[in-house]
Amino acid sequence: MKLMLGSVQFGLDYGVSNTSGQTSADEVSCILKLAKKNHISFIDTASVYGDSERILGDNNLTAFKVTTKVPCMKSYKGTVAESVASSLKKLRCRSIEGLLFHSGEDLLGAQGDNLYAQALAAKLEGKAAKIGVSVYSPAEAKSIAERYDIDLIQLPLNILDQRFVESGVLSSLSGKGIEVHARSAFLQGLLLMPIQNLEHYFFPIKNILEKFHQWHQTLNVSPLALALAFVRSQKMVDRVVVGVNSAAQLEEIIHNWQVAKALIEEPLINSKFKAYSVQDESMVNPALWNSPR
User: Fold this and answer.
1) What residues does 132 pair with on adjacent strands?
2) Bridge partners (DSSP) listed for residue 43
3) Is the distance from CB of 142 to CB of 170 less than 8 angstroms?
4) Number of H helices and number of E strands within the chain?
């Protein structure tokens, strides 16, 4: 299945709409069992996601392909090899599917060549099948893909944040044979949040969020299904990362993933997605939320 299990909630209290806090270890086990049953075989994690790697490692991960991220190397005192060794130990794995730099700035900075060489060494040693980077902007992705031979890139993509589609960067990455993982399909839950709970910060896009909710109501589907329909419609995306707090949430996502499939079979629905694109990056980039505008 194209869905990929996000694990940030397993180690941290994460998400603008998250009211249930960090997921318990027992619930993580239930989530993994459900994922396996439904042929979701990819997991996304990171060394900076609190206890996420350790909690995942307490479970049998033989049925899963895990992608993890090294911390921002500007502040990390160790090497890529040391970060990989730590992750493998916590995950109780001999190797991982993907090794990503958590910050594109690492590869674009003065130490970029050195850091890339360290990641490549991990790949050549068989500790990671693929190497790549997690990015935040099309310009960042374009620069890195031009400079380095990467296998994998993770980027934000949702019905409000269509920057990678509109810029042509998504198409370019796919054309280079780079595997694309899309995160932030629900924009940290903002797309699923009732309008009456919307924080004042997001009032500049209140109108477009209201239209989004009107549209899913007209279609007689959930906001979850419509949000998933957009990312599922992007044929150049190889995996869609979805974070959950419970097995019940994953069950709901799996169901709505099938609803989304039916939605995008309607050409009229696909043609309407563009109208929901938000150009103000401070609204769609969580790293900029609540920063001075």
Assistant:
1) 100, 152
2) 5, 66
3) no
4) 14, 8
What domains appear along the chain, each with residue ranges and CATH number?
A: 3-288 (3.20.20.100)
Q: Is the pTM of this model over 0.85?
A: yes
State which amino acid sits at residue 107.
L
- pLDDT digit string (tens) for 7-61? 998 988 654 444 557 899 999 999 999 999 999 999 999 998 899 999 999 999 9
Spatial contact of 43 and 57, defined as CB atoms under 8 Å apart:
no
pLDDT digits 0-9 by tens, 60-106: 999 999 999 999 988 888 999 999 999 999 999 999 999 999 999 99
Please identify which residue in the block is written with the tokens 């960090």.
22
**Long-range contact pairs involving 162-168 (C-beta distance under 8 Å, separation at least 24):** 162/273, 162/274, 162/276, 162/277, 163/137, 163/138, 163/281, 163/284, 164/138, 165/234, 166/277, 167/138, 167/142
Residue with tokens 């919307």: 198
278 in helix, strand or coil? Answer: coil
